[in-house]
Amino acid sequence: MLLFSIPLIFIFNVNGVVFGIPTLYFSIFLIWLISIIISYTVLKRHYE
What we know:
Elements: H1 6-12, E1 17-18, E2 21-22, H2 23-47
């Protein structure tokens, strides 16, 4: 949740697009996706 704090969000709040998506929305989605992948990997490794 620290990655979604206001100072870090302002870093990605620039005018530009990545694959047709605004940079801010792309960075929020990418952080969300990476956190899901890390959570899945940790749970898969330690649950079994």
